[in-house]
Amino acid sequence: MMKIVNYVMVLMTFLPLQSRAQFVDGEIDEYGGTLNPTDFSWHYYQEQMDRFPQRIGTICYNAYLLDKGGLHSDSEKFLIQCAQRGSTSAMIYLAMLYEQGTIREPQPELSTQWLAKAANAGNPIAQYHYGVALINGVGITEQPQAGIQWIARAAKQGEALAIKHLANARCLNCQ
User: Which residues pair with 28 in a beta bridge?
Assistant: First the structure.
């Protein structure tokens, strides 16, 4: 703690007066640090994705934290940005939120659309869950044959649930 206080004191000494005034005028927490609530908005992270596209996975993880913090609307906007930039993890998380109705009422069609995008992008977890959705007709017309094909794709990539699913299906056909 003492090192942080010393660092801040040194920093304040070398900051130009104009910058120092902005730093001092901010809201101060109980430890003497400047709080910046905008750092936790999805807009901040959107800027970070623009600046550091190679860090999209790490940056998009914060959408999960926003959701768990109860900021579901901000989380949704952030996850959509991540998904549009190719994050299959964001696509899967969006699918889960829409299926469970976390953001608003359950939307199985929208959930399955995001799973399909992640599955087509090659994510084996999404391939398995999309296959199950096709088999059961969740948010999409029932297509058992196509569902098994997606589950087989996931199994080829080593997805444990898909492998187990196919083994159980073969066992049922063996009887």
Answer: 34
